[in-house]
Each structure stands twice: as C-alpha cells, then as structure tokens.
Amino acid sequence: MAEADAAGIPEGNERIPFADYVARLTKVVGAPTSNDAGKVIWENGPYCVIITDHGEGAFGIEYLTSGLWQYGVTSATIPQFLEDSAKEIAAFLNGPPAPLPPPKKYPVDEQCIQAMQRQLRRVEQQVYIMMDNRRWNLVYQDIIARNPALQLPNAMLTHFQRVYIDFAVLAVRRQAKQEDASVSLRGVMLAVQRNAATLTREWYHRLWRGETKSRFAGVGITGPFVSRGADEIFATFADATGDRVDPAIVYADLAAFGKATDAIVHYADKIIAHDDKAGLGQKFAGYSWDLNGAVTAVASFTRRYSQLLFVHASRDMTPTALTNPVQVFRQPLVMSDDDVSAIGVKFNLRDVGLGAQIGPANA
C-alpha cells in the first residue's frame, strides 16, 4: 500500500464532493480494490476498509480484519479530516506493527485517576465554550472583512471585539493559572506529574478496552489494533521503560504551556482583573500578545491530556456546528432610519469615533 502523507491535501473547512474525497484519499492510500455506487473498498490481505457515502457531505468508514468488524467512524468530507483519515486507513491496511512486549502490571490508584478525570472533564467543557467563542469571533472578523461598509470606524463593532478579547483572556487564565481551590488544565497536568507512577501502560490498555473502574470508560475496542492505538499515544508520555508516564515529559509540557500563556495570564491579572499602578506600557513592554496562540495552546494541551485520561479527544476542541447561523445576518438588524434615530436618542449615541483600543494583538 502507499505510504501515508499529506500530499495534495488542502486547507479549509469546505465540503469536498465524495468522488473528489476518494480521489484524494487514493493519492495517499493507493488505488481501491473496488469503487461502486457510493461504496469504496480497500483490501490488503486480511485487512479491509470500507467507505460509504451517506450523502450531503457525510460518510462512514468501517475497519475489518478477516471479515470481522473492528470499529467505525462517521465524519464529513472536509479537508481537516482527510489527512487524519488517510493516514489511519493506510496504517490499518499495512497491518499492525511488531507488538511491544506485554505491559507490566504495577499498582494503580483508580480513585486518584478518577479524580483527575473528573477535573479534566470540567476543563473540557470550559475549553469547548472558549473554542466556540473563538470560532464566532473569527466569523465576525470574516464578515467585516468581506463587507467594505463595515470596515469604517464604528464603536459598536469595536465593542464586540473588546468583549471577545476580555472573554478569551480570562478563559486562558482560568486554565493556565493553577489554584488549589479551583479546577484548571494546569492543575490537571500537575496532578498527572505528581501521580505519574499510577498511570501505566497496562492501565491504559484496559482504559481502551473499557475495563477500568472509571465511569469515564474508554472506547471499548477489542482486537489486534488496541495495542497499536494505545501504545502509540502512551509512548508520547512514557518513561524509558515504556510502561509508566514520565513526570519529566509532563514537566516539559507544563513549561511549553506556560511559555504560550504566561503573557496573557499577566495581562488578565494586571489589566482586566486589576488596574496595575505601573500602567500597561511600563509593566508589559516587551510582551508578545499572541492571544490566538494562547487559546490554541489551551485547546492543544487539553486534547493531549484527554487522550491520556479518556482516550476520546476532539480534534480541535471545537463543538460541531450543525447549522450555519451566519444566514440570520442576511436580515437587517435595524429596520428603518426612524429606528436608527430612536435608538440613538434613547441611548444618547453620537458619532464620536472609535477612541483607543487596548488589548492583546492577534485576537
């Protein structure tokens, strides 16, 4: 079979016609065994992958070994999924690699793990909200960029931008600043570092099979691909033995997380939560205000530790939008000139310009 790579895979979230999707998969995976009536099959010895067109940009992938169903996924024909699915299909058809030795069994503190899982589940819900708000802010910016009439100075549009900046800064701070009485992503990562010895490869295999005591069960997958999937992820956390999480790796994650978010945390503490006496210019000269980068770091590390503690993890920690709410803006927000005047009088609005905008760049 062809080696998996990202050649020819575009960026963006537009839907791709199913036939084009299969054609692009073929460049990565190789020619299918059969392609007929919305069902495409790849076979390589006992390994078989079936992709079925469900219409309207949706499709399903089924993985079989010697005719026995292993697992399946349903997704949309969008470029961000194409690269992942192409690599996974190619890896599956090539068969499992030489297995690692069976994991050694060490004592596991299930209660400790469940406490970390409960906290991370709360973090996930907060991060989903953060990423959803970032999406709508990007939609808002794109709407303005496409409409020259909205690109003139306007205090109301600037207000919307400031609201998002303040929300996102505090959302990053909530996850990046650890406090004993609060739940945060940094707190979960520190807990993983402290309790690394109880997070073992043997436990992680059981999590994948849904055999742990936790109510946050894994995917319940059985068969020869459990070991490969579990071992590939666990190896990114493992120490030299391969059987336990390495606290040094978690420490490195914490350092990288801090580097990406420290400036935003300081901004939240000194400018949003408090009015720092030294002033913004003196206190924060030289800081890089990469709010987008900090938000992305929160989402990326949440996903990484969700893979460790839950197996399941959203690709970008952004909820799926099942409708396109942008359509509502085709309707006028203000119905008449009289309404414009009435609102202006009611709220004492005058055209006084934007004024200064203070906040991190790259929002």
Explain what the structure shows.
The chain has 363 residues and is α+β, with helices and mostly antiparallel strands. The protein has 2 domains: 18-93; 110-309. The protein is built from 11 helices and 5 strands, in the order αβββββαααααααααα. Strands 1-2-3-4-5 form a 5-stranded antiparallel β-sheet, with helices on one face.
Poorly predicted segments: 1-12, 352-361
Strand content: 5-15%
Whole-angstrom Rg: 25 Å
How many runs of DSSP E, i.e. beta strands? 5
Distance between the termini: 43 Å
The helix count comes to 11
Strand order, sheet with most strands: 1-2-3-4-5
Largest sheet: 5 strands, antiparallel
Tally of structural domains: 2
The residue fraction in helices comes out at 40-55%
Order of helices and strands: HEEEEEHHHHHHHHHH
Describe the global form: flat
Mean pLDDT: 80
What would you call the structural class?
Answer: alpha+beta
